[in-house]
Structures are given as structure tokens and as C-alpha cells.
Amino acid sequence: MTLRLDKLPDRTPVRMSLSVDPDLASALSDYAEIYRQTYGAEEKPEALIPAMIESFLASDAGFKRARRALHSNASKET
């Protein structure tokens, strides 16, 4: 049977530990407070960090080009 929707990719979260310096921890707490004031929804910095990283990576054109080249080169080697 053929479906129009491809099989969904693995969406199992991967747990990673992260240590940040005190200034960054303070800035992340401030961001979470400003987020609460802006949207009326309280989120812990830990919940905002993945979205912040995704947004950063999505907006980095140099990273996107280099990543495509990295994966293109890797597929050529195999």
C-alpha cells in the first residue's frame, strides 16, 4: 500500500545536559520573565532553550550551507 504521508521520522527526545555561566543563566531567567510578560504564559528557561537554539540554527545561513556540504560529502564517501 502507498500512502501520501511518508513514515514520520524518529521524534524521541534526546536528553542533553548543559552547563552555563552565571551571566548566561541570569539572561535566560530574564528572557523567561520577559516571555511571561509578553505572552502571559510562564515557561522555565529550560523549556525555552531548545526553541531558542532551533531558531538560531534556522537563521544561520552559513551553518545551513556548511551542514548541506557536510552531509553531501559524507554521502559521497559511503
Automatic annotation (TrEMBL):
<dbReference type="InterPro" id="IPR018733">
    <property type="entry name" value="DUF2274"/>
</dbReference>
<protein>
    <submittedName>
        <fullName>DUF2274 domain-containing protein</fullName>
    </submittedName>
</protein>
<dbReference type="Pfam" id="PF10038">
    <property type="entry name" value="DUF2274"/>
</dbReference>
